[in-house]
Amino acid sequence: MKKFLVILGFIAAILAVVLSVTPLSKIAYLPAAAALVFGSIATYLFKGKQDSKKSIQLIFLMTIIALVVTTYKSVYNTVEVGNTEELLEKENESEENAIEELEELEIDEADLE
Asked: Of 2, 20, 29, 73, which is most buried with the most CB atoms under 10 A?
């Protein structure tokens, strides 16, 4: 049971670190929270034992790093909007093309019935 929790903690912590440096950094909070939960439960189970606690400390360290990077990116990351005039022109052109194509279609009354 303890090894299973430590393995789940490592997987969640590594996933949190990887997600925190990608553009999907806002999703990194979920595996970070899971890693904290698994690490806390493993700490509680190892409480009375003389087993090595380095692995649990590493889980907490990786989780803290992931949370710091994710928080930093969410605070200091600015979203820039590109040139919207080009997008509006393309939208108008595509709308005009669609109207022209519809006008070129010949619809018989037999097709409607």
From this structure: 20
- What is the tens place of the pLDDT at every residue in 47-84? 777 677 888 899 999 999 999 999 999 888 877 777 78
Residue 111 lies in a domain: no
Q: Give residue for tokens 């493993």.
A: 42
* Amino acid letter for position 86: E
Helix, strand, coil tally for the chain in percent (to 5) = 80, 0, 20
- Split into its structural domains, the chain has a count of 1
pTM: 0.66
CB 88 within 8 A of CB 43: no
Domain of 51 in residue numbering reads as: 2-79
